[in-house]
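hey so i finally got around to running the thing on that chain from the lab meeting. sorry it took forever, my laptop kept dying and i had to restart like 3 times. anyway pasting the input first so we r on the same page abt which one it is
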Amino acid sequence: MNMQMEIFDKDQTIFNIGDPGNKFYIILKGSVGVHIPQYVKVEPSELERRNLEYSQLKNEVKHMTKSISKLKEKLGVFEEHMKFLMDKLCKTHHAYKECVTKANRQIENFNLNCVMCCASYDGMSQDEILIKKFMKKIKEGKAKYTT
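ok and heres what got predicted. didnt touch it at all, straight out
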Protein backbone atom coordinates (compact mmCIF):
# COMPACT_ATOMS: atom_id res chain seq x y z
CA MET A 1 0.00 0.00 0.00
CA ASN A 2 1.42 3.35 -1.03
CA MET A 3 0.20 6.36 0.96
CA GLN A 4 1.36 9.92 0.44
CA MET A 5 0.36 13.14 2.18
CA GLU A 6 -0.75 16.01 -0.07
CA ILE A 7 -1.51 19.57 0.99
CA PHE A 8 -3.77 21.85 -1.07
CA ASP A 9 -4.40 25.60 -1.00
CA LYS A 10 -7.83 27.11 -0.37
CA ASP A 11 -10.10 26.92 -3.48
CA GLN A 12 -7.54 24.81 -5.32
CA THR A 13 -9.05 22.28 -7.77
CA ILE A 14 -7.94 18.78 -6.82
CA PHE A 15 -9.49 16.96 -9.79
CA ASN A 16 -12.07 17.57 -12.52
CA ILE A 17 -15.05 15.61 -13.77
CA GLY A 18 -13.86 12.95 -16.16
CA ASP A 19 -10.39 12.58 -14.59
CA PRO A 20 -9.40 8.98 -13.89
CA GLY A 21 -10.18 8.00 -10.29
CA ASN A 22 -6.82 6.57 -9.26
CA LYS A 23 -6.53 8.23 -5.84
CA PHE A 24 -8.36 8.02 -2.53
CA TYR A 25 -8.37 11.14 -0.34
CA ILE A 26 -8.65 11.30 3.45
CA ILE A 27 -9.24 14.78 4.86
CA LEU A 28 -7.22 15.23 8.04
CA LYS A 29 -7.93 18.94 8.55
CA GLY A 30 -10.21 21.44 6.86
CA SER A 31 -13.11 20.87 4.46
CA VAL A 32 -13.71 20.17 0.83
CA GLY A 33 -16.37 21.26 -1.65
CA VAL A 34 -17.74 19.39 -4.63
CA HIS A 35 -18.89 21.46 -7.58
CA ILE A 36 -20.75 19.78 -10.43
CA PRO A 37 -21.78 22.16 -13.23
CA GLN A 38 -25.38 21.76 -14.43
CA TYR A 39 -24.32 21.34 -18.04
CA VAL A 40 -22.14 18.31 -17.28
CA LYS A 41 -23.85 15.02 -17.83
CA VAL A 42 -22.37 12.48 -15.48
CA GLU A 43 -22.40 9.03 -17.04
CA PRO A 44 -22.40 6.11 -14.66
CA SER A 45 -19.34 3.95 -14.80
CA GLU A 46 -19.56 0.45 -16.24
CA LEU A 47 -19.46 -1.01 -12.74
CA GLU A 48 -22.21 1.32 -11.49
CA ARG A 49 -24.37 0.47 -14.52
CA ARG A 50 -23.87 -3.25 -13.99
CA ASN A 51 -24.58 -2.90 -10.27
CA LEU A 52 -27.79 -1.05 -11.09
CA GLU A 53 -28.79 -3.73 -13.63
CA TYR A 54 -27.96 -6.44 -11.10
CA SER A 55 -30.04 -4.66 -8.45
CA GLN A 56 -32.98 -4.33 -10.84
CA LEU A 57 -32.71 -7.99 -11.87
CA LYS A 58 -32.47 -9.02 -8.23
CA ASN A 59 -35.68 -7.07 -7.48
CA GLU A 60 -37.42 -8.66 -10.48
CA VAL A 61 -36.36 -12.13 -9.32
CA LYS A 62 -37.60 -11.35 -5.81
CA HIS A 63 -40.96 -10.18 -7.22
CA MET A 64 -41.19 -13.25 -9.47
CA THR A 65 -40.36 -15.52 -6.54
CA LYS A 66 -43.20 -13.97 -4.53
CA SER A 67 -45.55 -14.37 -7.50
CA ILE A 68 -44.53 -18.00 -7.94
CA SER A 69 -45.09 -18.63 -4.23
CA LYS A 70 -48.57 -17.14 -4.46
CA LEU A 71 -49.32 -19.22 -7.56
CA LYS A 72 -48.08 -22.38 -5.83
CA GLU A 73 -50.29 -21.56 -2.85
CA LYS A 74 -53.31 -21.06 -5.11
CA LEU A 75 -52.46 -24.24 -7.00
CA GLY A 76 -52.30 -26.14 -3.71
CA VAL A 77 -55.74 -24.85 -2.73
CA PHE A 78 -57.06 -25.72 -6.21
CA GLU A 79 -55.57 -29.24 -5.99
CA GLU A 80 -57.18 -29.76 -2.56
CA HIS A 81 -60.53 -28.57 -3.92
CA MET A 82 -60.21 -30.84 -6.96
CA LYS A 83 -59.35 -33.79 -4.71
CA PHE A 84 -62.40 -33.04 -2.57
CA LEU A 85 -64.64 -32.84 -5.66
CA MET A 86 -63.17 -36.06 -7.11
CA ASP A 87 -63.72 -37.88 -3.81
CA LYS A 88 -67.28 -36.60 -3.67
CA LEU A 89 -67.85 -37.57 -7.31
CA CYS A 90 -66.45 -41.06 -6.71
CA LYS A 91 -68.65 -41.52 -3.64
CA THR A 92 -71.68 -40.25 -5.57
CA HIS A 93 -70.85 -42.55 -8.48
CA HIS A 94 -70.41 -45.49 -6.09
CA ALA A 95 -73.74 -44.68 -4.38
CA TYR A 96 -75.39 -44.38 -7.81
CA LYS A 97 -74.01 -47.75 -8.88
CA GLU A 98 -75.27 -49.32 -5.63
CA CYS A 99 -78.67 -47.73 -6.14
CA VAL A 100 -78.87 -48.98 -9.75
CA THR A 101 -77.77 -52.45 -8.66
CA LYS A 102 -80.40 -52.50 -5.91
CA ALA A 103 -83.09 -51.28 -8.32
CA ASN A 104 -82.09 -53.94 -10.87
CA ARG A 105 -82.35 -56.62 -8.15
CA GLN A 106 -85.79 -55.33 -7.17
CA ILE A 107 -86.88 -55.38 -10.83
CA GLU A 108 -85.57 -58.94 -11.19
CA ASN A 109 -87.39 -59.98 -8.01
CA PHE A 110 -90.56 -58.27 -9.21
CA ASN A 111 -90.30 -59.98 -12.60
CA LEU A 112 -89.69 -63.30 -10.86
CA ASN A 113 -92.71 -62.74 -8.63
CA CYS A 114 -94.80 -61.82 -11.66
CA VAL A 115 -93.75 -64.99 -13.47
CA MET A 116 -94.49 -67.06 -10.39
CA CYS A 117 -97.93 -65.54 -9.81
CA CYS A 118 -98.98 -65.34 -13.46
CA ALA A 119 -100.18 -68.90 -13.27
CA SER A 120 -102.87 -67.83 -10.76
CA TYR A 121 -103.99 -65.01 -13.08
CA ASP A 122 -104.45 -67.09 -16.20
CA GLY A 123 -107.02 -65.60 -18.54
CA MET A 124 -107.18 -62.20 -16.80
CA SER A 125 -106.37 -58.86 -18.47
CA GLN A 126 -103.43 -56.77 -17.25
CA ASP A 127 -105.80 -54.28 -15.62
CA GLU A 128 -107.58 -57.08 -13.76
CA ILE A 129 -104.24 -58.48 -12.56
CA LEU A 130 -103.10 -55.04 -11.33
CA ILE A 131 -106.41 -54.48 -9.51
CA LYS A 132 -106.21 -57.92 -7.90
CA LYS A 133 -102.61 -57.31 -6.76
CA PHE A 134 -103.55 -53.87 -5.44
CA MET A 135 -106.49 -55.28 -3.50
CA LYS A 136 -104.19 -57.93 -2.02
CA LYS A 137 -101.75 -55.21 -0.85
CA ILE A 138 -104.62 -53.24 0.72
CA LYS A 139 -105.67 -56.37 2.66
CA GLU A 140 -102.06 -56.91 3.81
CA GLY A 141 -101.88 -53.24 4.92
CA LYS A 142 -99.06 -52.47 2.46
CA ALA A 143 -101.16 -50.01 0.45
CA LYS A 144 -104.01 -47.55 1.01
CA TYR A 145 -106.80 -46.53 -1.27
CA THR A 146 -107.48 -42.79 -1.22
CA THR A 147 -109.68 -40.61 -3.38
